[in-house]
Amino acid sequence: MEYQTVKGEKVPSLGLGTYRLTGEACARAVEQALSMGYRHIDTAQMYGNEAEVGRGIEASGVDRDEVFITTKVWPSDFEHDRVIQTTRKSLRKLGTDHVDLLLMHWPPNGGTPLGETLGAMRKLQEEGGVRHIGVSNFSPSLVEEAAEHAEVFCNQVEYHPYRDQGRILDQAQNMDYLVTAYRPLSRGGAGDDATLGEIGEAHGKTAAQVALRWLIQQEKVSAIPKASSEDHLQANLDVFDFELSGEEMDCIFSLGR
User: Which of these is catalytic: 3, 19, 38, 47?
Assistant: First the structure.
């Protein structure tokens, strides 16, 4: 496993995304991923699978302190007391006394002020139930606004070879925050890409593995592909034994321009 360093803390570059993983399939995927070497698990209150994620973590036998757990608060719960209530409920479901990262799932929807939501998240942080605070799907200007109310550790956004996130990447460098890439394979589209496939042939890798390698080879970027089968979990993990050249990195960057 490789790590990104953010605000002095190491975060695994590759994690398991659990969107649309439910029931026993979710618990099994989490348990299996951790047994294979994953140490970064991403969930959300809206996914309705926090209890299953918690069961998978417990069943894996991996020490809690070795696993970086992220969950997210849905916009309908951005009001101060709801943030506190729903996050404490998340902790109970996950079977842990803290999460490593709590995110606002989307920008405010015009109701609750940003400062109120982040103030509640800071309260949870002060209590020890949350280690780091972050946002998801925020523009650079909204990240700056959020930073007036809390130390922003992460901005989780859709990021893959076809989506240019240059402004957010530049800001992440300047502000020292993590960019977590969801849908890193563009809903599977990256797996069929001729350019990625050609680069992969030179390394004995698939197009999808090249896309993941491209992401995690960037400073301050982690990727959280969803997978449930052992084959896919392993394929996504097999991206640490090769490196893309500068020319190959630039070639992939050009796909999103």
Answer: 47
Cα separation, 244 vs 217, in Å, equals 8
Question: What tens digit of pLDDT does each residue of 52-62 get?
Answer: 999 999 999 99
Q: Which residues pair with 10 in a beta bridge?
A: 5
Report the DSSP beta bridge partners of residue 41: 16, 69
pTM: 0.96
Could you confirm whether 177 is annotated as catalytic? no
Q: Token pair of 190, please?
A: 């990256």
Q: Comparing C-alpha atoms, which of 90, 111, 89, 93 is closest to residue 56?
A: 93
| pLDDT, tens digit (0-9, with 9 covering 90-100), for 170-187 | 999 999 999 999 999 999
Task: Find, among 168, 190, 164, 185, the residue nearest to 177 by Cα.
Answer: 168
Q: Name which CATH class applies to 3-186+218-228.
A: alpha beta
Domain boundaries, the chain: 3-186+218-228
Distance between CA 83 and CA 64 in Å, rounded?
Answer: 23
